[in-house]
Design brief:
By secondary structure, the protein is mainly alpha-helical. It contains twelve helices and four strands.
């Protein structure tokens, strides 16, 4: 029983890593394709990550971030503001002039740089096109496995089928662009995989896989 729990935790971790790769590829693909610089724009997933990591960046444990720690936060989420920009951010969001951003001030500041959802969806559509290798408008298990293996998070055949089942929102057995975008917009919710992994749909896929393997 304990071994089963460990295996499921490992599977959840691998699926979470796979989703991270998908969203990272979306960001990199659009940035390299457009070569635009609109200032700092942070994806919702990275906003969440930065907010949750506030205490890690508050290295001197004074319940706030000074300008050096703030710079580390931005670099951790893929931004590289200049010293002048950091000073401007501190001036704008340090409302009590304490020389640091307290947690509530920090959260409001980070959220203010969150990308609009329409832009996030465009990036995810770009990522879909990377996975849709044969260009037929859908993603199958082989395409998913190929791209994830190439970029560092290989899944087992069973995990690939289960991930495809989770992405197949309309239950037609295929993952089209709308399925893909909807899934990656939802999957950022807390404990998504712990809640949805091995749902009735993925259990059915798992059982079918076991039977075909035997």
């Amino acid at each position: 029983m304990e071994q089963h729990g460990f295996m499921e935790q490992d599977a959840v971790r691998r699926l979470e890593d796979a989703v991270d790769i998908m969203t990272d590829m979306a960001h990199v693909k659009r940035r390299s394709r457009t070569n635009d610089d609109h200032g700092m724009e942070i994806s919702p997933a990275l906003v969440k990550e930065a907010v949750e990591a506030f205490n890690l960046f508050d290295k001197d444990d004074n319940h706030g971030l000074d300008i050096d720690e703030l710079g580390q936060v931005f670099r951790a989420v893929g931004q590289n503001p200049s010293d002048a920009e950091l000073r401007e951010i501190m001036k704008k969001h340090d409302l009590n002039n304490s020389g640091m951003l307290e947690q509530e001030q920090f959260e409001k500041m980070i959220i203010s740089y969150m990308k609009p959802m329409w832009q996030v969806k465009e990036e995810l559509k770009d990522a879909f096109r990377i996975f849709d290798k044969d260009g037929n408008g859908t993603i199958d298990k082989q395409e998913l496995e190929y791209v994830l293996k190439k970029f560092g998070e290989p899944l087992t055949h069973r995990q690939s089928k289960e991930l495809i089942a989770l992405m197949d929102k309309n239950g037609d057995g295929r993952v089209d662009m709308d399925d893909f975008v909807t899934f990656l917009c939802e999957v950022d919710q807390p404990d998504f995989f712990k809640t949805h992994y091995h749902s009735d749909q993925t259990k059915q896929v798992c059982e079918q896989t076991k039977q075909s393997d035997s």
